[in-house]
Amino acid sequence: MTNPFPHLRQDFTASLVVFLVALPLCVGVAVASGVPAELGLVTGIVGGIVTGLMRGSSLQVSGPAAGLTVLVFEAVHQFGLPVLGVIVLVSGVLQMAMGALRLGRWFRAISVSVVEGMLAGIGLVLIAGQLYPALAAEAPGSGPGKIAGLPGALADALADTDALASLAVGAGTIAVLVLWRFAPAPVRAVPGPLAAVGLATLAAAALGLPVATVEVQGLLGSVQPPPLSAFGELAGIGVLGTVVAFTLIASAESLFSAAAVDRLHDGPRTEYDKELAAQGAGNTICGLLGALPMTAVIVRSAANVQAGARTKASRVLHGVWLLLFAALLPDVLGYIPIPALAGILVYSGAKLIPVRALAALWRESRGEALILVVTAVSIVVVSMFEGVLIGLAMAIAKTAWEASHVRLEFVDKGAGPVEAYLSGNATFLRLPKILDSLEALPKDRPVRLDLSGLHHLDHACRTALESWAERHSSAGTEPVRLTAAR
């Protein structure tokens, strides 16, 4: 008889590893987003059990992601927790609709520089924002304010014993995460994030450190489905803009993560439209439960693959372990120090900044590197949504400029007409340069302008060239002869 679960052993082991990686990250993302810690676990449970059961990417793991922390915090601060559920719900429905319309593959057409710039901007804001809880200080509201206020917050912390204890826990957590890869192989069997939080929790309890800890409300107490009145907020431009931002960013991050995970294993490839629909189904349920939005998370997904997972059973089981933990051991969360979670997110934010990739990109294409930097800086200075729009606008403008490459050559044999040849793509973007070159030609010589080498001639260029041809020749000179474009 054929074994219906031939890879159960590998998947069971991998699910435990992913659970141990996901647990501190779910809690940390929730706390940094300004919502009860249990809601991060709810999103992790839905990502594991609901999205995990659906088709799309067999080894990719979903849950609350550091990449959306900034946007979620802004949404909760501006609109309130009940409206967050509505935003997540509508975003999930839009994702399912895009999956049904087979739009998933088009997300792969988004400029990689914009996506990496988006992640870098999130990383910068995440680092700046999470340094404040590590310093036992209140974070300013704006991105520039967070960065500008750090020196003052650090100076205040150095004069405060409680703040110094908090800083020591946060710094110690980051140190464990950085150095964990140098630990002996048997020790590294414990995931770094879990080890860092566990050690920080033990140190804070054993030494009696005066640090803030996670507030525990209980799973059922935290789950608050959005009331019907909250749906009326969808009439506001700000809420609709946030829905669009959630939808596009969560979808792009999930599908880019899927492409990265596909490179880590030899199993079935991702079905992008089905994966987008699966993400949408998960976010719809998260919205109904008033929880955090989800995306596919590369850290958990990579841990899943590296732990030997073979089928989707591993990610479903990890959701089951999260559910059992949230139901049976929620009080354990109350012992976790806030600065330890801040340290994990500072470390996660640093990994979002592609320093090496930026250096390589600068050597290959300075235009793409500039798009990445401007997108990241715009997210820090303005906001997530506007920063991504600025990056997309720059990418489109750069593509349009490069696509409008045109070449103008002159052949002047000293006698007879001057021959001018235009080739490439003549668009309004290059029109000033084309006209400057043509208007410099002598008006007392006949001119033949050959447009047959053009692949594209837009209306603005055609009209301008015809007008130039009509007015160029002086009296008594043969009119300009135009050879039509193909």
From TrEMBL:
Keywords: Membrane, Transmembrane, Transmembrane helix
Subcellular location: Membrane
TM segment ranges: 12-32, 79-97, 109-132, 163-182, 194-214, 234-256, 320-349, 369-397
Keyword Transmembrane helix recorded: yes
Membrane topology per record: Multi-pass membrane protein
Main localization category: membrane
Listed GO CC annotations: membrane
Record's keyword annotation contains Transmembrane helix: yes
A GO BP entry: transmembrane transport
Pfam families recorded: Sulfate_transp
Top-level division of the source organism's lineage: Bacteria
Residue intervals of the SLC26A/SulP transporter domain: 8-375
Annotated signal sequence range: none
PANTHER family tied to this protein: SULFATE TRANSPORTER (PTHR11814)
Protein name: Sulfate transporter
Organism in which the protein naturally occurs: Streptomyces shenzhenensis
